[in-house]
Amino acid sequence: MKNRIKVLRAERNWSQAELATRTGVSRNSINAVENGKFVPSLTLAFAIAAEFELQVEEVFDPEEYMRG
Amino acid sequence: MSRLSEISNLKLIVLSIAAPLVILVLFPWLNEQPDFVVFLAAGLAVLWSLTLSVIVSLRADRSADEWQRGGTRLSFFWGGIAGTVVVTLMLALPAFHSLIVRVAAWGQGIPVQDVDRPVVVLAFTAGFVTVILIQTLCSLVFFGFWKRHTLGSAE
Hints:
The complex is a heterodimer.
Chain A lengths: L1 E2 L1 H8 L3 H8 L3 H8 L7 H10 L4 H4 E2 L1 H5 L1
Antiparallel strand pairs in A: 1-2
Helix pairs in contact in A: 2-3
Chain B lengths: L1 H4 L3 H17 L1 H4 L4 H29 L2 H25 L3 H15 L8 H34 L5
């Protein structure tokens, strides 16, 4: 699923490891989600968005995923 | 339990593998023992390995996040299928039959030519098929639990 995690991380100068710690998952999880290779659960999507203090739809773009 | 929690998963995996290896090493000795000793030793080894495997699995699952669980699900599914296909193909190879027969001869402490080759290969194949069938049945049972646990009444 397309997302803006990389950009948002860069704006805050956060590493993948830091975001992983903040959201309580492994760095690999953040890596896979950020690269669009893994669709996160609602819980994780909300947790990531909350860390950036944004709405979920401001971080993730589900359009491509919803089209299949 | 607290002492158990201090043992790393790697050590538990090594310990779980040790039991069947011990049985393998004891083959010649077990061959001279009465049947109940053989079944008891094999049963205890299986119980030991299974118990430790379940402990490692539960620990790994508890500490895993959703990406790791997704990877585990994928690797178990495709790994299981690949393993089944590989063994099935190997069972078609005469060289693999010879290997099974040699192991059986070594376990029984008799010359290879004295082993009833078709019986040994058939027994091995039957054991393999039994494992697949029971795993399939258990998967169905657990899926039934999953459905009961997660689905509400249809409206």
